[in-house]
């Protein structure tokens, strides 16, 4: 009885407003459940049709998209006793999601969904398309999450008007065709927790304006063509947990300010052009669990200059292909959580501290190949059994393997490939 009375009350209000000529109250559906306004429903259906094709009309949905048979990828909240769309995900995100058609169109009705907080597109834009900035500004006051994932047809620059989306907490632009420089207006988005611009064709220098993004936890600009030096304003990202700038064209010295990122757990700078040696300020980031600096020309930097033992939380350390010299620092053998150690393809010399490295309780991968180590490898058969092909020591001309390590003929296959027997 209560539901019936509630429905008739809404219907009476609707009729009263019609009689006075006020069209501001949405027309309700004929459901006894919480209704969705007619305008909201028609805007939603038209917007979806633009992406999936006119063959879909929502006729199988009863009583409404947020009731008993909701659309996969559509979520709603109630405002003034009516359903409004708050989350919209288009594309094959879920198994039963509606796939986008190759001839999709962005209809104006999409921008009438003015209660949207989250909007995402996955593998929708396959044909070349430039995002028009005019209509999108309608979302600036409410949208908290915006994602474009795997849309190779999205080309052109990211619109400068993105800086108007001041409520955004998550901005993900992953594996698309965007190019050009990043608009400096992204630094206006003070509420951001996550920025992911990975795997596009962005180029140019990274804007040096990140000092205001105090809430940022994740910054991923990997797999682009960014050039120039690392902005000093990165040092102001005091909440940052993950910084991934790998696979770009960045160069110059690592800024001293990088040591101010006291909460950082991942720093990935691999495959760039950084030079000038390892910054001693890296050792100040004691929260790091993954440090990946491989394939940067660090100009014969001596590894002994870093207090590695102070980075006691390291799980992954990859400093391969950097031109590093000197001996293996004994501080590395104090990293009890270390699982992966990549020292390969450098100019490291001296003896390999086999017993100390083997004593690391978590070590599961060790690469020391492509250096100038000398002497004997003194790892046990048990170590080789555990590591398998995750241990490499080849291309060290003056390094040898004692025969007595492997007792029986049947275990000779455990010997590291490319290391000569000691004579």
Automatic annotation (TrEMBL):
One of its GO terms (biological process) is response to fungus. Keywords: Cell membrane, Leucine-rich repeat, Membrane, Receptor, Repeat, Signal. Pfam families: LRR_1, LRR_8. GO terms for cellular component: plasma membrane. It is found in: Cell membrane; Membrane. It is a single-pass type I membrane protein. The keyword Transferase does not apply. Residues 1-21 form the signal peptide. Its main location: membrane. PANTHER family: LEUCINE RICH REPEAT FAMILY PROTEIN, EXPRESSED, LEUCINE-RICH REPEAT DOMAIN, L DOMAIN-CONTAINING PROTEIN-RELATED. This is Piriformospora indica-insensitive protein 2. It comes from Cardamine amara subsp. amara. The lineage of its organism: Eukaryota, Viridiplantae, Streptophyta, Embryophyta, Tracheophyta.
């Amino acid at each position: 009885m209560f539901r019936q009375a509630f429905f008739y009350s809404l219907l009476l209000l609707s009729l009263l407003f019609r009689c006075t000529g006020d069209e501001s109250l949405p027309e309700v559906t004929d459901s006894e459940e919480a209704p969705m306004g007619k305008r909201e429903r028609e805007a939603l259906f038209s917007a979806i049709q633009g992406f999936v094709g006119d063959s879909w009309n929502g006729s199988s949905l009863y009583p409404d998209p947020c009731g008993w048979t909701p659309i996969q990828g559509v979520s709603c909240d109630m405002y003034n006793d009516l359903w409004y769309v708050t989350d919209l995900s288009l594309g094959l995100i879920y198994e039963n999601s509606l796939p986008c058609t190759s001839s999709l169109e962005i209809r104006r009705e999409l921008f009438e969904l003015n209660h949207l907080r989250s909007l995402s597109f996955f593998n929708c834009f396959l044909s070349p398309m430039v995002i028009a900035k005019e209509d999108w500004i309608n979302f600036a006051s409410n949208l908290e999450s915006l994602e474009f994932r795997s849309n190779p047809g999205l080309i052109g620059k990211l619109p400068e008007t993105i800086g108007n989306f001041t409520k955004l907490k998550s901005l993900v632009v992953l594996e698309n065709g965007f190019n050009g420089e990043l608009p400096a207006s992204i630094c206006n988005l003070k509420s951001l927790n996550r920025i992911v611009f990975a795997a596009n064709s962005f180029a140019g220098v990274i804007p040096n304006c990140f000092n205001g993004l105090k809430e940022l936890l994740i910054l991923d600009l990997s797999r682009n063509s960014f050039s120039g030096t690392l902005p000093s304003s990165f040092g102001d990202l005091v909440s940052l947990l993950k910084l991934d700038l790998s696979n770009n064209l960045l160069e110059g010295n690592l800024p001293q300010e990088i040591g101010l990122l006291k909460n950082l757990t991942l720093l990935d700078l691999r495959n760039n052009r950084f030079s000038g040696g390892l910054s001693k300020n890296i050792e100040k980031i004691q929260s790091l669990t993954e440090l990946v600096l491989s394939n940067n020309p660090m100009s014969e930097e001596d590894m002994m200059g870093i207090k590695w033992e102070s980075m006691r939380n390291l799980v992954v350390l990859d400093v391969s292909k950097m031109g590093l010299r000197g001996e293996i620092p004994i501080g590395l053998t104090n990293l009890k959580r270390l699982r992966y150690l990549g020292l390969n393809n450098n100019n490291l010399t001296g003896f390999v501290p086999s017993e100390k490295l083997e004593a690391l309780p978590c070590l599961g991968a060790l690469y020391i190949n492509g250096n100038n180590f000398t002497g004997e490898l003194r790892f046990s058969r048990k170590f080789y059994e555990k590591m398998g092909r995750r241990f490499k020591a080849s291309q060290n001309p003056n390094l040898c393997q004692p025969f007595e390590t492997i007792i029986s003929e049947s275990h000779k296959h455990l010997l590291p490939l490319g290391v000569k027997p000691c004579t």
